Amino acid sequence: MKVPQEKQKYRSKGRIFADILKAVQDEGKARTTHILYKSNLSHDRLSKYLINLEESGLLVRTEDGEKVLYEITDKGQRFIAEFKRMEAFADAFGLDI
Amino acid sequence: MLPPPRWFIPLDTTVQLFTGIVALAVALYALRGYRWVKEPSLNNIFMAFLLLAVAFLVDALTMSTAYLEGIPFDQTFDHGTFIQLGFAVYYGFSIVAYGLLLYTYCRRYSVMAAAPMAPFVMFNSPPLEIIIIGLLAAIVIAQVLRERTPGRGVQGLVSLSFLLVLVSHVLILFESADYLLYFSAKGMQMVGFALMGFVLYRLGRMA
d(Cα B91, Cα B132) in Å, to the nearest integer? Predict the structure, then answer.
């Protein structure tokens, strides 16, 4: 039995959250353009996700003059750890998350 | 009919209890992940293993009640509403649980999901064990097809554990030929779920 190839790798909302948070975590304080580049999202979608992440308490938004910066919270760090744990768990069952 | 001896019921109950506890641990692990990640696959694993845990624990309760009331092993189906309800919950919940797991594996591959079930459509009302065997066989196929490094690592262990549970249900079909088959079936079920517990332990240590 042949499994059909997926045309484009599906990214769940959780994975997109994790990708954005990792991009911010790597940078310490990250600018929107850096996150945009690292998370491979359109500007509109990224803006919506950043609002979501802020509202969920996973990221904090700060302003340094004209620059808007994002910083990961403790809850955000924990989200990344839990995501990695669940990625391994789902992988054990042959599932992608 | 060659039923297993009465002394085996406490052992059988212990196996069902152990299996139920491991299934509950898997369910809680998936629930914890779902609360963070909100991924439907994790919710399905949680629901499926919770149903399995309830099924095994209810079966353990049913068998221990039958044992304490002195009902012979081969006549448990004929005695009392409570006993019949217990077996109905065990089979009903198990079928829904394995069906949900199969759906989770196959939801992006509709052909794969339908193919293993096709032979069962031919039966008007297949015995409950046959339905469980069909679902488990399809789960094992789906799990093996999705292994990245076939037969190795935690994926290999999960495949092996589903395979052992599948073989245990096949052996139960033939229990009337020799009750040693029933003992072997229960042993395999326990080893299968012990492997699943070991996978959880390894994942916990990796994090």
Answer: 8
